Amino acid sequence: MWTQQHAQFAGCLHQQIREFVFLRSxxxxxxxxxxxxxxxxxxxxxxxxxxxxxxxxxxxxxxxDVPPEPPTKGCFKVDPNDIPMVYxxxxxxxxxxxxxxxxxxxxxxxxxxxxxxxxxxxGLHFVYLSxxxxxxxxxxxxxxPPTRRVAEExxxxxxxxxxxxxxxxxxRRARKAHGNEFYESRKRRYSFAYRKRLVRGALExxxxxxTKHLPWQLILKGRSKAVDDILEKFxxxxxxxxxxxxxxxxxxxxxxxxxxxxxxxxxxxxxxxxATLKAWEEQEPGKLRPPLPIAVLMGLVCxxxxxxxxxxxxxxxxxxxxxSALVLVAYFGLLxxxxxxxxxxxxxxxxxxxxxxxxxxVGGGRLKGSRYSDLAEAEIxxxxxxxxxxxxxxxxxxxxxxxxxxxTPALTIDPDxxxxxxxxxxxxLQLVSGLRWGLTLIWRFYAWMLRFARGRxxxxxxxxxxxxxxxxxxxxxxxxxxxVILTARESLRRCFCVLSLLVDGLLEEAVAQxxxxxxxxxxxxxxxxxxxxxxxxxxxHWYLLHWLLHxxxxxxxxxxxxxx
Length: 564
Known about the structure:
By secondary structure, this protein is mainly alpha-helical. It has 22 helices and seven strands. It has four domains: 4-143, no CATH class; 152-283, no CATH class; 294-413, no CATH class; 430-493.
């Protein structure tokens, strides 16, 4: 049974006995010739049980006519004087009984093959001993220190990890492994291109540390707070240098990622660094990358609409209509599937709503990309406008209108109405922006007056400042846009009604005056005594009742318009 000592010893010898050449004289080799010349007793004295039976079965005596095996890649020449010592150690450790060896003789007349090359020698023959890879050899390859030249990425990540009390097995492996091998085993999970980007970022960080006379070991072994401060200053410095060329942000980000790869415990402790990187990312100009060509979208939606009209049941018709609507909203609203299914009725404004939109608008909710813009709304036509720079957009639009019109003949598009709607929306937003600017000035004025306020005046000024600050936020303008537009529209309608009533009254009075002047004079009427004339009754005007009825009519009219 293998022990740890056997594994270590076999690993040390595995590199030497992998494929080597035994040199012997011309006489045939029997199974005791090599041990006797080595000055060792019979190997069977050192073996017991299955090891002895395995040794007896090994083909030590080989006929002369057995051809030698060709040398494989990696075999090397061994000094004949070292062969007895190696073999003796193999016998003493019991490893030789587990090596299935085949020994062959060849009269080469002074030729020795070593590593695939032929060299001259006198009176020597050679025997190949082929050794299979053993478990001990694989363990030794993992524990063996590297002899090749250490790469730059290994030198950057070279450090000795401390033992972890939670995982004893990983602590033992870490104590056995060297620092660079620990990093080597960790970086194998990444691709070559990604490792290259990580190394470039690490070299940039190392250059910055060298200019500040800071050691690289401070990143690998320092406290997380100190590392976070250093990396945050590094990101800020690179941002202030105005190096907004292609790949500068990615280079800095990969430098931070390299530190997290070397020290996984830093993954959730670099809060300031990642906040600075996120702010830098948001300042970069965004790029719209459509998820699929608009021709494919046209085919999906038109096919779904056609299948809904050809469906045999109402359930299938509703299913295809819902599918086409979801595809359109997800595409033009730039929504992910999770965001699409998280929408509610209050987040979607249908056409001909309060703001008189021609198309549906996705507004409200916590959209993923809302923090990249001051507006909290994402119209579904934003993605369609991005295609207008493409020469094929007009052709696609014509195909879309043709196919969709054939599928739904009742669909009509009025460009004039759409233009008027866009102009009204633009004027409304300009009005709200002016109101926001005025509230901002008021807020600054009260902030200046706060210095001289005392007692109750201070409380009043603080409340006014809170109201002004609330009104100066970008979302407040969007919130107040609907009431402002409704109020302005209703005020204009009322003013127009009053003006029309005034003009109508003036015109009617003018007509009555002209009619009285142009009318022919009537004969004088017979005088009636005062006693015989009836006294006229006084009429009472109920103005309050008139206004109450007018208000009720307005309320009932508004409720009737809102009912579906």
